[in-house]
Design goal:
It is built from six helices and no strands. It is mostly helical. α1 packs across α2 (28-61) and α2 runs antiparallel to α3. The chain is globular and about 35 Å long. The protein starts with a helix and ends in a 10-residue tail after the last helix.
Length: 134
């Protein structure tokens, strides 16, 4: 990866965090990629603040602020961060190849029921995963 690519990636992260990217430009894979980049650059706490602000701005710009979901945001960032800890320093391409399950928007249903994950409470605050059923 050349210097221009790194600068472009850094600019893209900053544009996302500031809400300057056009709504609807990114699919789920791109959101995972941006989360990976922010986690690599800012750690979990810094990435959470920036990433959540970027998503809120994107949903507002798309005219659908009610689509922002704090539980989904935190859960995906935590899951991506956990996987990154297991393979420190791994770049995006290697991370994507090693974690194909994260490219499925429904992967959180391993820990959350769909009703809980789509609830108004999940949009407003972070809900813990549901207990495992025996």
């Amino acid at each position: 990866m050349g210097a221009a690519t790194r600068i472009d990636a850094a600019d893209e992260l900053e544009d996302f965090a500031a809400g300057r990217l056009p709504p609807g430009r990114f699919g789920h894979r791109d959101h995972v990629r941006l989360a990976h980049g922010m986690l690599a650059r800012h750690g979990f706490e810094g990435a959470l603040t920036r990433y959540a602000a970027g998503l809120r701005a994107a949903t507002r710009a798309a005219g659908a602020p009610e689509k922002f979901n704090l539980t989904v945001t935190i859960a995906f960032l935590a899951l991506i961060g956990e996987r990154m800890e297991a393979a420190p320093g791994e770049g995006w391409e290697a991370f994507e190849r090693a974690n194909p399950d994260l490219m499925d928007p429904a992967c959180l249903t391993r820990w959350y029921g769909r009703d809980r994950l789509s609830s108004p409470a999940a949009r407003r605050t972070f809900l813990l995963p549901e207990p495992a059923r025996s």
